[in-house]
Amino acid sequence: MKTRIKEFRARYNLTQQDLAKKVGVRRETIVFLEKGKYNPSLQLAHDVAKALKVGIDDLFVFESK
Amino acid sequence: MKKISDERRNLGNKVKAIIIFILAVGVAAGLLAYTFSSANQGYSAVLVILAAILLIFFALFALRRYRDAVKGLPLEDERSRRVMEKAASKSFYVTLYVLLGIGMFSDRIKFRDVSQATSAAVGIMALLWFGFWAYYNNKNVSKLLYASPTCDLKVAVLRARTIVDTFLECKIST
Known about the structure:
The complex is a heterodimer of chains A (65) and B (174).
Chain A: E1 2-3, H1 5-11, H2 16-23, H3 27-35, H4 42-51, H5 56-59, E2 60-61
Antiparallel strand pairs in A: 1-2
Helix pairs in contact in A: 2-3
Chain B: H1 6-37, H2 44-71, H3 78-104, H4 114-137, H5 153-158, H6 163-173
Helix pairs in contact in B: 1-2, 3-4
């Protein structure tokens, strides 16, 4: 899974900590999401997308098998 | 559902961080006291090292949590809870096998008394938990222990259903 969180985060000049505070999670969670090393729950994905004002399917890219 | 204000949440997080720190200091102090009380019985080196490791780990952990609480960040979230769950379950299962092994080789492994045996079991479990926590904290821990397939993000996106429908379905089913 790839994410475009870093790209959208840069658009709004948000640090990882700022985004984490906005979403209500720890900074490490944002770090792992950006690296694609964590598959979030739908609730978290929705919250991150809402914080970055973008759709979930624009933010998370799954490579179909 | 009652919404908790940010101030109350931050205060609650600070209190939790302080409690964690007090518990950590208490555990480390108890272990050090036990270590020096058994100093003449040849086990002190191992216990001192164990106490030092636990003290450093807990102090750093508690300090980090307190700093996060001061900044208004949450002490735990879904990812940290998953890491804790995985570490706890793995350390529990491995400890069971370790205790089984100790029981099988009880004629070769000599404990001074029952309290030393139980303390060793608790110490082994704590160290195992720490090891598994460190391992899973740097690993992909996406798989929930009890995940509903309909709530899986990947399934929802790959099926190309509308995100709103999927989200509402998850809200109804949970």
